[in-house]
Amino acid sequence: MAELNTKGGKKSTSIDMTAMCDVAFLLLTFFILTATAKAPEVLPVDTPQSTVQTKLPTDNLATITIGKGKVFFDLKGREVRKKTLELMGQKYDLEFSDDDTNKFAIMESFGVPIQNLKQILDMKAADRTRAGQPGIPKDSLDNQLKEWLLNARRANIDINDKELEIAIKGDAKEEYGTIKQVMDILQDQKINNFSLVTGLRGKNF
User: How many Å apart are CA 112 and CA 132, to the nearest integer?
Assistant: First the structure.
């Protein structure tokens, strides 16, 4: 509000900040209530450095994380995840409840044999990171990673009518044998194009 001092002819200005403070607090409250905290990674890895800045897609994507000799699997899209779990249940003759399916649809990456998946689903998100998941079996006698990939691709085509994109997120210090084993599984399914997740490095090095 502006006031005019008629005696001296000088203007004195005062601004009521109450409304602006109210708006600021409303915006702050909105962002706090709507923001979601990023869950810690179940298998944290130190990715190799690169100058490439291409971003991964936000959907139609499966990520295979490799670290400490373990392999974890993640998949974008709730409906795709639900369909994939249904197909995996049929493959291994396991029954998952609607509650199990809904939890799996929003879960982060996981690394357990499918026979132990229910135990992980029953945990809180914070407890899953401390559960010591052993990784998804990938050997010739029990190659569950192959089945996850195969059924995730089928589910994505069924739901999104698109071929699933694959990304490998490997630890920079991971032994080559484990990574080669995963790449062999991809090639067995005729997957020759996939992304490698790296950290950003400056161009001057």
Answer: 9
Specify the higher pLDDT residue, 80 or 7. Answer: 80
Q: Which residues pair with 49 in a beta bridge?
A: 199
User: Bridge partners of 22?
Assistant: none
CA distance 166 to 75: 9
Place of tokens 């200005």: 13
Best CA proximity match to 87, nearest among 160, 186, 154: 154
Report which DSSP code applies to 22.
Answer: H
Residue reference for tokens 């049929």: 90
Q: Using CA atoms, how far apart are residues 108 and 128, in angstroms rounded to an integer?
A: 9
**145's tokens:** 């990673």
Specify whether the CB–CB gap between 125 and 108 falls below 8 A. yes
Give the C-alpha separation, 83 to 62, whole Å.
14
- Do 40 and 115 touch, CB atoms closer than 8 A? no
Task: Specify the amino acid at residue 72.
Answer: F
Which tokens hold the place of 90?
A: 């049929």
Other residues' Cβ atoms within 10 Å of the Cβ of residue 24: 11
- pLDDT tens sequence across 131-156: 889 999 998 899 999 999 999 999 99
Report the alpha-carbon distance of residue 55 to residue 53 in Å, rounded: 6
